[in-house]
Amino acid sequence: MMRDGYVARWQGREYQASPDGDDIRLYQPEPGEGFEEVRPGRYVRVLPASDIEDLAYVRTTCTWQGQPFIVLGKHDAWLRVEYTGGRWPVAEAMRLEVFDFGVYQGWAPAAEVTDLREQRV
Predict the structure, then answer these.
(1) What one-character DSSP code corresponds to residue 12?
(2) What is the 3-state secondary structure (H, E, C) of 71-113?
(3) Residue 48's beta-bridge partner residues?
(4) At 5, which helix (H) or strand (E)?
(5) Residue 85: phi, psi to the nearest 5?
């Protein structure tokens, strides 16, 4: 699974999460006690941050062509990646798209990606 976002542990279970001031929004794909449907397949429950056991930002990282990347998404046999090496000549040589100032992204064949792992930051 490719994750890039907040996760929170509550009552021993991990949820997708979103901090909201002094509250934390927990999300799950199925109905549950105290969860309200916000759209089909998406349920939310808002809790005080003090009720949360752990809150972290999780992202998936990898190496492609010897360079460090964050994985943003997946489509078929391709991964949407963002270069984190910070060197324009490398990004240019890899023909990455300029997404924003200093931000370079591209599509990497999943079969060419190594060191795929999840990190808490």
Answers:
(1) T
(2) EEEEECCEEEEEECCCCHHHHHHCCCEEEECCEEEEEEEHHHE
(3) 23
(4) strand 4-10
(5) -80, -20
Residue 40's pLDDT is what?
96
User: In this predicted model, what pLDDT tens digit does every residue of 20-63 receive, in sequence order?
Assistant: 999 999 999 999 999 999 999 999 999 999 999 999 999 999 99
Partner residues linked to 45 by β-bridges = 26
List all residues 6 or more positions away from 75 whose beta carbon is below 8 Å from its beta carbon.
107
Say what the pLDDT of residue 112 is.
97
Query: pTM of this prediction?
Result: 0.73
Distance CA 118, CA 91 (A): 23
Type of residue at 55: L
Strand pairing category for 67-75 and 54-64? antiparallel
13 contact partners, CB below 8 Å, separation of at least 6: none
